Automatic annotation (TrEMBL):
It is found in: Membrane. Pfam families: 7tm_1 (PF00001). It comes from Daphnia galeata. The chain crosses the membrane at residues 53-74, 86-105, 125-143, 164-185, 210-231, 275-299, 311-330. CDD domains: 7tmA_photoreceptors_insect. This is G-protein coupled receptors family 1 profile domain-containing protein. Keywords: Chromophore, Disulfide bond, G-protein coupled receptor, Membrane, Phosphoprotein, Photoreceptor protein, Receptor, Retinal protein, Sensory transduction, Transducer, Transmembrane, Transmembrane helix, Vision. Its main location: membrane. The keyword Membrane applies.
Length: 376
């Protein structure tokens, strides 16, 4: 009842007095807000409270889900493989992004920013590391799947190689996270309802447009191109390999050249590849709205942008951070087995592999086994 009374009172106050965006925001903070956002009326308090409520759900689901992923992948010996280090790193990146949600939640229920410019910069810094880092992390996972499935004779990635890849991922994310934070190139500014912050894509000058175009290519186009390249290679390789198997079996007048072990290995690797492709698809879903808003503001007709529209991309990103860990629960065989052992009440039912089966993430695939058969 008390909450309903508060909402009614807020709505009545909103109806009786039309307020401009930033009405309860300090002048020193408003100096960082682009004039375009100041032309809009303040959103209905109900929108603030609704977004705050959804972010509480996002925060709980993402922190719990990614926390379980990190816990199981690091505590289970059979899952502590070099390839799965990339999975843990992706979960850490999602975990870090959701650590900033308390800033937004408090801002939403305050109907404006509480933590000032430092809170704004911290919020955007964590988001930038997650966005750019997860993009390249997905590309690294795609490369690992490509190498495992399409080039099995090259051998699996070593722990040292994956460690260097993870260091490179964080190094890749650093320039366009730190430079705006320090104001070296670009800057972090409030956006939309002024309760979130991102890099400046509204200022109408050549330097800002060049920054927006550069970060778009750096953090979106390049990772997406790598994802498309590696996964298309996987599809092509699998298709060609299946055709070779069928032709060879036809010549030998047999139904199939695969043993049960080969079939199980194929099933495991394909399921893991499906997880990786799903993660890549979620990456596109999460960050394409941000790319659209930023490019429209910098190069297009910004009149179509509203504060509410600029809040949609952030919701997409948080939603994807919630979904990512459950992708493993659905499709990763070894992860499902460990989840079943450690959390039996979670209603996961995964059949244990036979002793002859290759463990998930070992780097051995059905293709390598069949290659030996066909060459012998």
């Amino acid at each position: 009842m008390a909450l309903n009374s508060t909402l009614v009172a807020s709505y009545d106050a909103f109806r009786s007095e039309k307020r401009i965006m930033g009405w309860n925001t300090p002048d020193d903070y408003m100096s960082h807000v682009h004039p375009y956002w100041k032309t809009f009326e303040a959103p209905n308090p109900f929108l603030h409270y609704t977004l705050g409520f959804f972010y509480i759900i996002f925060m709980f689901c993402a922190l719990a889900g990614n926390g379980v992923v990190i816990w199981i992948f690091t505590s289970c010996k059979s899952l502590r493989t070099p390839s799965n280090m990339l999975v843990v790193n992706l979960a850490i990146l999602d975990f870090i992004m959701m650590m900033k949600t308390p800033i937004f939640i408090m801002n939403s229920y305050n109907e404006g920013p509480i933590w000032g410019k430092l809170g704004c910069d911290t919020f955007a810094l964590l988001g930038s590391y997650n966005g750019i880092g997860s993009a390249m992390n997905n590309a690294a996972i795609a490369y690992d799947r490509h190498r495992t499935i399409s080039r099995p004779l090259d051998g699996k990635l070593t722990r040292k190689q994956v460690t260097l890849m993870i260091v490179a991922i964080w190094a890749w994310a650093t320039p366009f996270s730190v430079m705006p934070f320090l104001g070296i190139w670009g800057r972090f500014v409030p956006e939309g309802f002024l309760t979130t912050c991102s890099f400046d894509y509204m200022t109408e000058d050549s330097a800002t447009r060049f920054f927006v175009g550069t970060i778009f290519v750096y953090s979106y186009v390049i990772p997406l191109a790598l994802l498309v390249f590696y996964y298309s290679k996987i599809v092509k390789s699998v298709s060609e390999h299946e055709k070779t198997l069928r032709d060879q079996a036809k010549k030998m007048n047999v139904t199939s050249l695969r043993s049960n072990k080969d079939q199980n290995e194929k099933s495991a690797e394909v399921r893991i590849a499906k997880v990786a492709i799903a993660l890549a698809t979620l990456f596109v879903f999460a960050w394409t709205p941000y790319a659209f808003v930023a490019l429209t503001a910098a190069f297009g007709n910004r009149a179509v942008l509203t504060p509410l529209m600029s809040m949609v991309p952030a919701c997409c990103c948080k939603g994807v951070a919630c979904i990512n860990p459950w992708m493993y629960a659905i499709n990763h065989p070894r992860y499902r087995m460990e989840l079943q052992k450690k959390m039996p009440w979670f209603c996961v039912h995964e059949t244990a592999p036979s002793n002859d089966d290759t463990s998930v993430g070992s780097g051995t695939t059905e293709m390598s086994g069949v290659s030996k058969e066909t060459s012998s």
